[in-house]
Amino acid sequence: MKIADVVQSADWKTEKHVPVIEAPDSAKAGEKLAIQVSVGKEIAHPNTTEHHIRWIKLYFKPEGGKFAYDLGGYDFSAHGESVEGANKGPAYSEPQATVAVKLNVSGTLIAEAYCNIHGLWESSKEIKIV
């Protein structure tokens, strides 16, 4: 079995677990870009002690390249837990992060997200560097 066998994907507009990548369709080489990744943009994902997004990872695979490059990992650690019990805590992390990157070639952004109940989900977005 391979990791690809357990990763799920779908359209984020109809499936709440799919990570959303918000980035321009094109940019200039070496230009600083703000890329946002999130889960639950169109359909809110629960953010409870029992059911939550634990992390999102963002990668970049250059066009024609063999390997993907790790752009960042974002952990979401507060889900309402406390000594008073589940969902009674003072803090809830929202599964959303923004990273600034500079790209020199065109390629594909790939995001993976992990739901503590429904497992791994992924999506991708091409970006053209001019």
TrEMBL record:
InterPro entries: Desulfoferrodoxin_Fe-bd_dom, Desulfoferrodoxin_Fe-bd_dom_sf, Desulfoferrodoxin_SOR. Residues 10-123 form the Desulfoferrodoxin ferrous iron-binding domain. The keyword Electron transport applies. Pfam families: Desulfoferrodox. CDD domains: SORL_classII (cd03172). Keywords: Electron transport, Iron, Metal-binding, Transport. Gene3D superfamilies: SOR catalytic domain. Signal peptide: none annotated. Belongs to the desulfoferrodoxin family. This is Class II SORL domain-containing protein. It comes from Anaeroselena agilis.
